[in-house]
Amino acid sequence: MIDPSSQARLTENWQAVQHDVDAATTAADRPAGSVTIIGVTKYVDAEMTLALVNAGCRVLGENRPQVLWKKNEEVVFPDDVQWHLIGHLQRNKLRRSLPFHPMIHSVDSPRLLTAIVEEATAQQIPTKVLLEVNISGEEAKTGLKPQELRPMIESQLGSSDTDAVEIVGLMAMAGWGTDADAARQQFAATRELRDQLTQQTGAALPELSMGMSGDFAAAIAEGATMVRIGSRLFEGLLPTA
Ligand SMILES: *Cc1c(COP(=O)(O)O)cnc(C)c1O
């Protein structure tokens, strides 16, 4: 257990983030509740992760699968916690990860998608994934080039494994050091790419995972359905660098 004052601070942070996400949703003329907050817990240990769940956050994101496994060995999470894997994922980590029924945001190669289909089929665990697109065009960023997405969606739609893996949308991150305007333009470009892919392939692609602590309002204004928020939730709880 974490100490009561830390738990109180965490609850306060969670409520403040919910409030700000609601405000951004309303400001964008979007229906209340149309944006899911993914609490990104990569900065904290298993105890603090569970404390966030107890504060009310039931949707969690980890960027390293090993950490997801380890935390689940250390503490028992309620059954209704939903896990999201948001970081680069190696194919040899899939076998141990799928039993947690994660949504995988970070499909960044055709090879990874194929491996997920194989593992989801073998384990009979239907898996939802997002294609991670490098919308900023930065060399250093992970993610697929926009033109790589269509063939992946079409081959998945055409395969016999459509029950095992469903591509439900796109994930994107704004480039490093982009100002608010540039970030918003990249989120808009991600939505436009999604709309174009939907038209071209017939896949619905309802989900857009974009926006983090510093830029979620812009992402919500441009149609994000999932925001991945870490540091804002743990303000006042982490040692400052
Ligand atoms: C760490 C991380 C986040 C959360 O970032 P914050 O700025 O701490 O909110 C979101 N998405 C990904 C992929 C991350 O690795």
Explain what the structure shows:
With 241 residues, the chain is of the alpha/beta class. The chain is built from 8 helices and 8 strands, in the order H-E-H-E-H-E-H-E-H-E-H-E-H-E-H-E. Helix 1 crosses helix 2 (46-55) and helix 6 (146-158) runs parallel beside helix 7. Helix 5 links the parallel strand 4 and strand 5. Pyridoxal-5'-phosphate (PLP) is lined by residues 40, 42, 63, 86-87, 212-214, 228-232.
Ligands in the model, by name, code or SMILES, are: pyridoxal-5'-phosphate
Q: How does the major sheet shape up?
A: 8 strands, parallel
Task: Count the E strands.
Answer: 8
How are the strands of the largest sheet arranged? 7-6-5-4-3-2-1-8
Give the averaged pLDDT, no decimals.
95
Tell me, what's the shape?
globular
Estimated share of beta-strand residues: 15-25%
- The sequence of SSEs as H and E is HEHEHEHEHEHEHEHE
| Residue windows where pLDDT falls under 50 for at least 5 positions | none
Features:
241 residues; alpha/beta; 8 helices; globular; binds pyridoxal-5'-phosphate
List the helices and strands and how they pair.
Elements: H1 4-27, E1 36-40, H2 46-55, E2 59-62, H3 65-74, E3 82-85, H4 94-97, E4 103-107, H5 110-123, E5 127-132, H6 146-158, E6 165-171, H7 180-201, E7 207-209, H8 216-221, E8 226-229
Parallel strand pairs: 1-2, 1-8, 2-3, 3-4, 4-5, 5-6, 6-7
Helix pairs in contact: 1-2, 6-7
The protein binds pyridoxal-5'-phosphate.
Residues 40, 42, 63, 86-87, 212-214, 228-232 line the site of pyridoxal-5'-phosphate.
